[in-house]
């Protein structure tokens, strides 16, 4: 026996509402974060820096994930093994602090139409 009193299959040790302090929305615009919105950490955003509020370790995990490449909200949730709702609340906190930047997804009306895509495919085939 290794002295552990819990089992890995038992699930998370902390309930999601405890990670967010019971909040269901972050202080920033987390309610409007689409699953495909791209998030990137701002340069110099470091948890534990002088003057920053006490943040949960999960905030640091999110910052570490987004430090090099932009990730979608869904990717952050999957990589951090946290529920999407929790990730949205934590991202709202980081947005309020100015430690992350969010690029909203392109609206469907701004995407090229099917006819344009077919013309591109036909043009590529003609090459």
State Rg. Answer: 19 Å
Strand residue percentage: 5-15%
Strand order in the largest sheet: 2-1-3
> What is the N-to-C succession of helices and strands?
HEHEHHEH
CATH superfamily: Winged helix-like DNA-binding domain superfamily/Winged helix DNA-binding domain
Provide the structure class: mainly alpha
CATH level-two architecture? Orthogonal Bundle
Q: Would you report the number of β strands? A: 3
CATH topology: Arc Repressor Mutant, subunit A
Q: How many structurally independent domains?
A: 1
Q: Could you list the spans in which at least 5 consecutive residues all have pLDDT below 50?
A: none
Distance between the termini: 67 Å
Amount of helix: 25-40%
Counting H and I runs of at least 4 residues, what is the number of helices?
5
CATH class: Mainly Alpha
Can you walk me through this structure?
- The chain is mainly alpha-helical.
- The protein has one domain (8-126): Winged helix-like DNA-binding domain superfamily/Winged helix DNA-binding domain (Arc Repressor Mutant, subunit A, Orthogonal Bundle), CATH 1.10.10.10.
- The protein is 39% helix and 8% strand.
- It has 5 helices and 3 strands.
- The chain has helices at 16-19, 57-66, 73-80, 84-97, 114-126, and strands spanning 38-41, 71-72, 100-103.
- A 3-stranded antiparallel β-sheet has the order 2-1-3.
- Helix 3 (73-80) packs across helix 4 (84-97).
- The longest helix has 14 residues, at 84-97.
- The radius of gyration is 19 Å and the shape is elongated.
